[in-house]
Design brief:
The chain is built from 13 helices and eight strands. The protein is α/β, with parallel strands linked by helices and about 425 residues long. An eight-stranded mixed sheet has the order 1-2-4-3-5-8-6-7, sandwiched between helices. It comes from Lolium multiflorum (Italian ryegrass).
Length: about 425
C-alpha cells in the first residue's frame, strides 16, 4: 500500500527508510570506481575456467602433478584455495634432497595476468608447452631436483568481485588486502593510507586466505617463495615495511640471485632491491616480510610482472593487465621463462644444493630480442663466480687477520724495546 499525505508514515518506518538511504549513500561514496577498459574476455580465462583447465591438467599428468583443496573460515567468511604440487622424478631423487619452491599468484583480485602465467607455467612443466627458442629437454635434469607448489589463484573470492565488475578492487571477498594481513609490522598506516587499497583486517591473519598461506609456509618449509603481482616490472626482496634489505650473507645471496636473473633475462631492465626502498612507498603486514622474519624462508621474493605506466589511475584493468594479444603473449612467455631461470639460479646459488647447473637455459630467444649466447669460458666463470668470490673473501679475511697479528706483535715489540732502552738510559744516568 502506497503512503500518502492522508496516511503519514509511522515514525519507526521513517527512521528505517532514512537509515537505509544513509547506508546506500555511504556505500555509493565508498564504491571503487569502475575501470574504463573492460576485461578482455578473448584473452583472459574466467576464474572457473582456469581452475577447470588446471584440474584437467592434473588428471592428465598424475605422475608429476597433484592438487589439494584447502578451506578455511573466520567469523562467517570462508575461502577455498587450490594448491598444485609438481614433483618430477619422484622415484629417482629423494624429496629430502630437493629444493622446495612456492609460487603464489593472484593475491590481488584485479591482477588477472598473474594467474594466466601460473596456468601457462604448469603447462610448460608438464606437457612441455613451447617457449620461443628454448629446448626444454635440456631442463629436465633441473626439474628432477625441484618440488614446486603453485597457488594459481590465492584470492578466488576477490577475483570473483573483479569479474562481476569491480575491476579496480584488489581486496578479498570481505574487503581486506591480503598483502597487509600478515603479522610483521601489521596495522601501521602511512600518511597516504587508503583503506580501499590497504585495509589490513581486524587482526593479523584475520583472513582465511592468509591463514591458509601461513599454514603452507609452516608445512612445506620452502627454500624459495615468490609472491607474484602486477603493476610494474620488478624483482623485490625484503623488506617492504622499511627502506632497507636484511643484513648478512643470506641477504647477499638473495640479491645475487635477483641480479643474475635480471642480467641474464631482463638485460638489467627490472628494478631490483627491497620493496620498501624501490617501489616508492612502505607497506606493512606483507607476505614477504613475514616469510623472511618469522617463517625463516631463505629466499622470499615479490615479482611484479607487468604494468602500463601510461594508463590513467582509474583505468585499473589496463594498468595491471595487458589488453592486446601481442603484449599478452610476450608477458606470458617472458615470465614463464623467468621462472625457469629462477629455478636454475636457485639450484646454483642455494647453500647445500646438490646439483650444479650446467647452464641449460643460457641460450634462448627472448620474445622480440636477439639470441643470447656466451662462450664456454664465460659460462664456467659465471657458474664458479659465487664460490670463487666466497673463497677469495675468506682468503682475504685470513690474510688481513695474519697481517693484523704480525703488525700488533711488531708494535708491541717496538714499544717494549723502547721502554727497555729508556729504562737502561735512566739507570745509567742515575
Amino acid at each position: 500500500m502506497a503512503l500518502t499525505s492522508a496516511h503519514p508514515a509511522p515514525p519507526l518506518l521513517v527512521s528505517r527508510l532514512l537509515a537505509l538511504a544513509l547506508t546506500l549513500a555511504l556505500a555509493s561514496a565508498r564504491k571503487i570506481p569502475a575501470s574504463i577498459t573492460p576485461i578482455s574476455r578473448d584473452l583472459y580465462h574466467s576464474s572457473d575456467s582456469i581452475l577447470g583447465e588446471i584440474k584437467a591438467l592434473v588428471a592428465r599428468n598424475s605422475d608429476s602433478l597433484t592438487m589439494d583443496t584447502v578451506r578455511a573460515s573466520n567469523k562467517g567468511y570462508s575461502a577455498e584455495m587450490f594448491v598444485v604440487t609438481f614433483n618430477h622424478a619422484k622415484e629417482t631423487v629423494k624429496d629430502g634432497s630437493k629444493i622446495k619452491i612456492m609460487l603464489s599468484f593472484g593475491q590481488h583480485g584485479r591482477e588477472l595476468i598473474t594467474s594466466e602465467v601460473a596456468l601457462s607455467l604448469l603447462y610448460i612443466l608438464t606437457e612441455k608447452r613451447r617457449i620461443a627458442g628454448v629446448d626444454l629437454s635440456s631442463f629436465e635434469k633441473i626439474l628432477e631436483h625441484l618440488v614446486i607448489k603453485v597457488v594459481p589463484m590465492e584470492n578466488f573470492n576477490g577475483r570473483k568481485r573483479v569479474e562481476a565488475g569491480e575491476l579496480c578492487d584488489r581486496r578479498n571477498g570481505r574487503g581486506v588486502d591480503l598483502n597487509r594481513n600478515w603479522s610483521v609490522d601489521w596495522g601501521k598506516k602511512e600518511k597516504d593510507y587508503n583503506p580501499f587499497e590497504e585495509d589490513p583486517g581486524t587482526a593479523p591473519f584475520s583472513e582465511p586466505e592468509a591463514q591458509i598461506m601461513q599454514e603452507l609456509s609452516k608445512s612445506f618449509k620452502p627454500h624459495i617463495w615468490v609472491n607474484v603481482h602486477s603493476g610494474m616490472e620488478a624483482l623485490f626482496m625484503p623488506y617492504d615495511h622499511k627502506n632497507t634489505t636484511p643484513d648478512g650473507a643470506p641477504s647477499q645471496l638473495m640479491r645475487s640471485l635477483l641480479e643474475n636473473l635480471n642480467r641474464r633475462h631482463f638485460q638489467d631492465s627490472c628494478l631490483v632491491g627491497s620493496g620498501g626502498g624501490a617501489v616508492g612507498y612502505l607497506a606493512h603486514g606483507t607476505t614477504t616480510d613475514y616469510l623472511y622474519d618469522i617463517a625463516k624462508v631463505p629466499m622470499p621474493f615479490t615479482f611484479e610482472i607487468y604494468g602500463d605506466e601510461k594508463a590513467s589511475t582509474d583505468d585499473c584493468f589496463k594498468m595491471f593487465n595487458p589488453v592486446e594479444k601481442t603484449t599478452f603473449d610476450r608477458v606470458i612467455n617472458k615470465w614463464c621463462m623467468a621462472f625457469l631461470i629462477l629455478f636454475e639460479e636457485g639450484l646454483r646459488i642455494l647453500p647445500g644444493s646438490q646439483v650444479a647447473s650446467q647452464g641449460a637455459l643460457d641460450n634462448w630467444v627472448p620474445m622480440g630480442g636477439e639470441i643470447l649466447e656466451r662462450n664456454a669460458d664465460e659460462k664456467s666463470g659465471n657458474e664458479n663466480r659465487q664460490l670463487e668470490g666466497l673463497d677469495l673473501g675468506m682468503q682475504e679475511l685470513k690474510t688481513y687477520f695474519r697481517l693484523f697479528i704480525i703488525s700488533t706483535f711488531l708494535l708491541m715489540f717496538m714499544f717494549c724495546s723502547r721502554i727497555s732502552k729508556n729504562r737502561n738510559r735512566e739507570s745509567g744516568n742515575f
